[in-house]
């Protein structure tokens, strides 16, 4: 929790799936160079949503990062 904001729930995968993905990446079994990542800070969240809608597809990610 940060600044009285909390997120609860699971979207697509159980929480332990994150550990499996990290372990695969550490072992060199998950190629990360194939991903196209575009980042936006929280002040540009609307731009991020528009970008994600216009640029969706396999291996394309739009990411919000804290300021």
DSSP helix count? 2
User: What's the count of strands?
Assistant: 2
Give the CA-based shape.
globular
Instruction: Report Rg.
Output: 14 Å
Query: Mean pLDDT, nearest integer?
Result: 87
Major sheet characteristics: 2 strands, parallel
Beta fraction: 15-25%
Assembly context of the chains = single chain
Instruction: Output the helix-strand order.
Output: HEHE
What fraction, in percent, of the residue positions are helical? 25-40%
Q: Largest sheet, order of strands side by side?
A: 1-2
Uncertain segments are: none
Q: Give the N-terminus to C-terminus distance in angstroms.
A: 16 Å
List its traits:
alpha+beta, 2 helices, 67 residues, single chain, two-stranded parallel ribbon
Compact summary:
The chain is an alpha+beta fold and 67 residues long.
Overview of the structural elements:
- This protein is α+β, with helices and mostly antiparallel strands and 67 residues long.
- The chain is built from two helices and two strands; from the N terminus they run H-E-H-E.
- A two-stranded parallel sheet has the order 1-2.
- The longest helix is centred in the first third of the chain and has 10 residues.
- It starts with 16 loop residues before the first helix and ends with a strand.
- The mean pLDDT is 87.
């Amino acid at each position: 929790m940060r600044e009285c904001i909390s997120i609860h729930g699971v979207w697509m995968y159980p929480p332990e799936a994150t550990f499996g993905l990290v372990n695969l990446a550490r072992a060199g079994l998950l190629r990360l160079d194939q991903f196209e990542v575009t980042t936006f800070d929280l002040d540009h969240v609307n731009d991020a949503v528009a970008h994600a809608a216009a640029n969706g597809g396999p291996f394309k990610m739009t990411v919000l990062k804290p300021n």
